[in-house]
Amino acid sequence: MAMLGADAAVHMSEEIDNAAVNVPRAILTTMLLNGLMGFAMVLAVLFCLGDIDRVIKSPTGFPFIQVFYDGTDSKAGATVMTSLVLGLLWCAVIGFLATASRMTWSFARDRGLPFHRFIGKVEPRTHIPMIAIAVVTTLPCLLALIYIGSSTVFEDVVSLSTSGLYASYFIPCALLLWRRVTGQIDAHPSLGAGAEDVEVYRAIGLAVEDTEENVVQPSLVWGPWRVPGLLGIINNAFACIYTLFVLFWSFWPPITPATAENMNYSVLVTGVVLIFAVVYYYVWGKKQYMGPLIEHQVRHLARKAT
To answer: pTM of the prediction?
Structure first.
């Protein structure tokens, strides 16, 4: 879990200066820090674990709290350590909220969501997508109400987060791997003094809407951060294999024998979401969604270049 969410900075890239450099730097720094601290935490928990059955059957209902209590032999100490975990979770939720709201807003801006004109608005004073933030805050709260009726149904809905997360990782990794092996990525251009406007546009690597409402698709261009050559291909291939491996096992029941109560219904939930997405696209989405759009200034450069 310490390695997940490192891509959060990507979803904030439109609000980050020199994103082509600072976003990869943030991702690598996050993975190094979280990976090292997560590994240290695993060692500490294993060292203090003690009787596994006793920890699992903890009267607190949370095994990690029992580990804290066994390690400190103090309710106050266990409470303080649990509070630290809750504080970290609070910080993580803020990051999730920021990235989810930006993804929702950007997809609404590109006219890929229902009510896109409403969700895609930006508050003029703060320049923050307040409506998108409200949407991604309200929907999880409503989903949490399912737990009141059935914890099994709630866990099945939440299980979509695992399959959806790794599927979202697999798709760009697979597409990048395809582009690599087919040579469809241009070399990184020089953007020094006197560079042409078209190079500025191409370096962004996004689609842009012209005056006739058509989308101009520039070729994909390497940024300043990349793993070159054969090593990059191996890296992307390993990422695809790993995400498929995790995705495959995420659909299996956690214990055997599987019953209606402990069955993993994530494959059903994922299938329903995929079917809905396909039907939504062909019925309505393809009439509105034409590809990612970019800001007015870059759109102007693209028109000038063409």
So the answer is: 0.72
Structure letter (DSSP) for residue 145: T
> Which H, E and C letters describe 208-247, residue by residue?
EECCCCCEECCCEECCCCCCCHHHHHHHHHHHHHHHHHHH
Name which of 297, 136, 299, 160 is nearest 216 in CA terms.
299
54-74 pLDDT tens trace? 888 888 888 888 888 888 888
CA separation (Å) from 154 to 74, 110, 159, 166? Answer: 34, 31, 9, 20
Q: How far is CA 152 from CA 48, 83, 157, 158, 262, in A?
A: 31, 28, 9, 10, 8
The angle at the Cα of 28, spanning 27 to 29, to the nearest 5 degrees, equals: 95
- The model's pLDDT over 9-45, given as tens digits with 9 standing for 90+, comes to 788 887 888 888 888 888 888 888 888 888 888 888 8
